[in-house]
Design brief:
It comes from Herbinix hemicellulosilytica. This protein is an alpha+beta fold. It folds into four domains: 2-50; 54-156, no CATH class; 172-233, no CATH class; 236-286. Helices cover 53% and strands 11% of the residues. The chain has helices spanning 53-64, 69-76, 80-87, 106-126, 132-138, 140-149, 151-156, 172-192, 202-209, 222-231, 235-253, 259-266, 273-286, and strands at 2-9, 14-20, 26-33, 42-50. It has a four-stranded antiparallel beta sheet, with no helix packed on it. Helix 8 (172-192) runs parallel beside helix 10. The N and C termini lie far apart (108 Å).
Length: 289
Amino acid sequence: MENLLIKYRRRNKNVNGFFSCSCGFEYMKTVTKEQGERGKGQRRFVRVVKYGPLWEAKVRELLESGMSIQEVAARLNADIKTVKRYAFKKEQGKSGKTAEEKGISSAEFEIKKRFHREKWLQIVRENPDKGRLELRRLAKYTCVWLCKNDREWWEKNIPAKKYVQAYSNVDWEARDEEILKCVRQTVQNILESDEKPQRISLRLIKTMSGLKSFDFQLDKLPLTKAFINSVIETPIDLHKRRIQWAIRRLKEEGKEFGVYTIVDMIGVGNRYRKQVMEEVKRVLEDMGL
């Protein structure tokens, strides 16, 4: 052991000793004073602060040889989470610097570049049927190193993307006719309802018909799309239907017709109130009232 450093923490009265060795490992040994009824002695435990470059290189070497995270952890007598953290430490690119920016000599950089290039080409040759994602999984560290330090070469030597032709066995013409029939019936039910009229919209048609997601495929349902566009109402169209509904309701109840009575029944906001009142007057004049 070398580079011994001892620290005392006043807050919890612990004594921490930091040690390191030539292999790169750094340890922390803590002496804790027990308090209360548990005891009057001391409790000691040791924790690894840093595993060092040799250990990290061994982790990557075992992973690249095909071993799993669990196997590497068992081999090195370490926790699985620790192995994951150090294995993908460089892949996460925390520093964001290339090998040249980190001060690596040009000769060493060229050796590494040649090594990773040859390894990548070998993996591509041995797996001609695999796509980009699968190749990257086979050589995680090599792929990350090339992307960071030799990206232009890597992009020229990566296989082209494989596109899978999607096959659909849906008869869209038959489905269009089936949905159109359901939508027609729904619109007819809305128009014949004795309740206060609601504005015919795509949302109302979906809710009343039970067809929840057919609108995502409207481009494949031309007949249904054309019919829906022809029946969708504007706010003024809705108020015209409500005027007729209000007049029928007043006739059934035997009440007198009045402009303000009808306007109050149909429920008009300030935006369309003037237009609706003019329409009500026109309808009443046509009826001779």
